[in-house]
TrEMBL record:
Protein name per the record: PEP-CTERM sorting domain-containing protein
Pfam families: PEP-CTERM
Source domain of life: Bacteria
Domain named Ice-binding protein C-terminal: residues: 126-150
Amino acid sequence: MPTAANAVEVVLEEGDGGTLTGEFGAVVRASGESGDFTREFTFTLPVDGTTAASISTVRVDAMTDINFTSVLLNGVAFSLSPNGGVEFGSIEGLATLAGVQTLVVNGFSGGNGSFAGTISFVPTAAVPEPGTWALLMLGFAAVGFSMRRKKPELRETRVRYNFA
């Protein structure tokens, strides 16, 4: 069983709006023998936010069969959908704090299988500072004042021209 020291580091790439995405996966070989396995992956998030991830494997024959027994992101279990030759799992909307995150994949291998997955992260929207709120409220007050201000009366003036 891997320890945190030999966990595989997942590289996250930055996208639009500060989103991060990355891929992970492993080939599970047990020297031609079948059996239980554990693989550990880590990745680092720069800020707090929301994380989602998915994992899958497809069997070609008994040797390449993988059955997930559990997949955990920071100790929170994925929803797993075993379906014979196709195994799939996912987790959505997991609130995550900045720092190192740990993904642990546990399962049973036919001896020569593989799995892969993706991780997506969206940072939490920033909350405006009190000074920003005060300026916003001042702007609304100015607009309201200008709309309620009494407008000067318009006077009608008639001009008569006489041509003699």
